[in-house]
Design goal:
Layout: H1 38-41, H2 71-104, H3 107-130
Helix pairs in contact: 2-3
């Protein structure tokens, strides 16, 4: 019998004795121990792992998986999200105007703009406090 081309891991269990020659493996790593066949590197993985495992009772989600279970809640959350994103865009626009007015020296207009930003923040905070069970 010839010596195998790859060194054997001393901690691995003895491979099964078979009469068929094993296919030639091409090394892909600089570490020789990583170039062994999969069944020698991972002896706990058997050919029947997965589909033949008696611990697996269910193959996955049943019919209707991924469909919306509460469409009213989903539409309510979508409406809130659209409203909140609209307020955020308004705040960014308002911040641009406020900074521009402040830099040109119109501090009165900048303070009114800052009040608008605070008010829009309070609107979003009120929407968040509106329905606490959805959090």
């Amino acid at each position: 019998m010839t010596d195998p081309p790859f060194p054997r891991d001393p901690g691995a269990p003895d491979p099964p004795r078979d009469t068929e020659p094993r296919p030639a493996y091409t090394p892909g790593s600089a570490e020789p121990r990583l170039n062994r066949p999969v069944h020698e590197r991972y002896p706990q993985i058997r050919p029947t792992s997965g589909y033949g495992d008696p611990r697996i009772r269910h193959t996955g989600p049943g019919p209707g998986a991924g469909s919306e279970q509460e469409p009213e809640r989903s539409s309510k959350l979508s409406a809130r999200l659209v409203l909140a994103l609209t307020v955020v865009v308004g705040q960014l626009w308002g911040l641009t105007i406020v900074v521009d007015e402040w830099m040109t020296g119109n501090t009165g207009t900048a303070w009114w703009g800052a009040g608008f930003l605070v008010l829009s923040f309070l609107v979003v905070l009120g929407l968040w406090l509106l329905d606490p069970k959805d959090r």
